[in-house]
Specification:
Radius of gyration of chain A: 25 Å
Helix content of chain B: over 70%
CATH class of the largest domain in chain A: Alpha Beta
Number of domains of chain A: 2
Radius of gyration of chain B: 23 Å
Structural class of chain A: alpha+beta
Number of helices of chain B: 14
CATH topology of the largest domain in chain A: Rossmann fold
CATH superfamily of chain B: MetI-like
Number of strands of chain B: 0
CATH topology of chain B: MetI-like fold
Strand order of the largest sheet of chain A: 6-7-8-3-9-10
Helix content of chain A: 10-25%
Number of strands of chain A: 20
Order of helices and strands of chain A: EEEHEEEHHHEHEHEEHHEEEEEEEEEE
Shape of chain A: elongated
Oligomer: heterodimer
CATH architecture of the largest domain in chain A: 3-Layer(aba) Sandwich
Order of helices and strands of chain B: HHHHHHHHHHHHHH
Number of helices of chain A: 8
CATH architecture of chain B: Orthogonal Bundle
Structural class of chain B: mainly alpha
CATH superfamily of the largest domain in chain A: P-loop containing nucleotide triphosphate hydrolases
Distance between the termini of chain B: 32 Å
Largest sheet of chain B: none
Shape of chain B: globular
Strand content of chain B: under 5%
Amino acid sequence: MTEVSLRALKKYYGKTAALKGISLDVNHGEFISLLGPSGCGKSTTLKCIAGFEEITQGGIFFDNQDISHKLPENRDIGMVFQSYALFPHMTVAQNLAFGLEMRRVSKSEIKERVMRAMDMVQLTPYADRYPKALSGGQQQRVALARALVIEPAILLLDEPLANLDAKLRDEMRGFIRDLQKRVGITTIYVTHDQDEAMTMSDRVVVMFDGEIAQAAAPEDVYNAPASERIARFVGNANILDLAISARPEGGGIETRLPGGTTLHVTASADWAGERLRIMARPEQIMLTAPEHGQLGGRIAKRYFSGGHVEYSIDTDCDEIAVVGPTTQNLKEGDTVGLCFDPARLWPMPDDRDGAAP
Amino acid sequence: MKRFRAYFLIAPTAALLFLFVILPYVTVLVMSFRAPADGQPYGQGFSIGGYTQFFRESYYAISLPQTLALGMATTFFCLLLGYPIALHIATASRKWRGLLYGIVLSPLLVGIVVRSYGWTILLGNSGVINSTLRDLGIITRPLPLMYNNFGVILALTHVFLPFMVLPLLSSLQSMDPAIAQAARSLGAKRLTIFRRITFPVSMPGVQAGCILVFVLAISSYVTPSLVGGMRVKTTTLLVIDALIDQFQWPFGSAMALILAVSAGIVVLVFARLTRMKWN
């Protein structure tokens, strides 16, 4: 198992900065996701770690060894690509054997390790098939086994599930996660899919514009995003812009909702300024009878989506998205009351364009 | 109905092929078994004389292996020169790719007669190369650059190089760049990647280019006759000679068919040897 350390990593293409100083420590056996919109630098970061991109400044360390200027073939990495990148002219078994042949492993050992790797990804019956004769999911499993059979120091995955259909993607998520835990290999996973990042990772690293915006456990990124942009990128977020009415001695902040109800926000009590921007996730808001809610509203739109119902509700505080159970019998046009859970409201700095961070 | 409509679409091509390829071949086949005659292109009756004459007279028989060898040599040199060019263009930046593409294709813009004459100007006994070397005092007698296999292979290689580069290029460009990266991540060095990944994966292009150049080279007439000056006797030249100069249509037809069948066998054997189970 290997520890990966990125220190003030910078990458310029000409004068354009793709990475503006990435610092990140990945622990032994940790599963890290680099999450962000396209062009945020997540793939560039991965390519720098793999060695396919030369870094402009900073350093990359595997177990405190500087590998910044090693060639990719000498870095001891296992990599899985979005396009699978299997060798089309080799069978499954030959694909898996390639990396071991490069390492001059003996023939008998290659045979044994390839067998074990094929067993690991449940592809033993396909040993003599060519990649073309395999489904997308099977090809991705071959790519995974090919990267792992050489027992590399770290495993790098570049949007490996992006080409699969939704159902298979869900299956592969669990498969990759279980395999990674079993092998215990330090893993860096690049994705633009926030569900993927959250379900699979020990830690999610959110990146915007060549910088790390937040690196934290999936629960923290979701419930306690460091900025409004993160809140909006990771899941759906309602942002309420409220006036601060009091700062009680016991901690927290009191804000006043339109309509007069006072909301006591417990988190992050020492917030300066007169207004507060608060995030409330749609599924953390409850819909009740109008007289019981902290805020009144009218259902503008209602979408049934199988497991739950999505509402868009007109209130004096903008339009608010709410996700509720299917057991509630509410129609478009109904007036309702919205109930917030004060413990789960999250205050954030205002990072909209033109606003101070 | 759908099926019928699809046939309808290929009907014009099928008609053209039938009229200008299949029908002529049948005519040639029939003609090759006609009896020869004096004072006219062919006589009455059935004869296999055209075929036996070809194999009996070494003047003709020897031209077949000579032609096939010439074709193989041209194919080999086209591959040798064309592969690096194709590889270079495939990996060039977008800005350069268009220009390089144009340079490779530019010979096709000039007629084959002009290009072949160009070679005679360069290679002739009093051509550019020989007269320069003589003026410099390096040689006293002209080097035999023309009217031999060397000159013909050189000129054919030049003429058909684009037909090798284009299929190679399309094969190399359709290759996923991540494949080479995957090989690197697994510990392979540049040369190993070329030998074990890039070249084998580009085999469909190699195969197509080789077959194309070989077939074009053995059937070419202008270049061997101008640069070879009738001293390099290919079967194709002899066919034209028999048909047009000697007025022996059955014999010429028989030779044409012998060459076509031989070339077909060579191509089939080559395709068999380079068969890709994975494709």
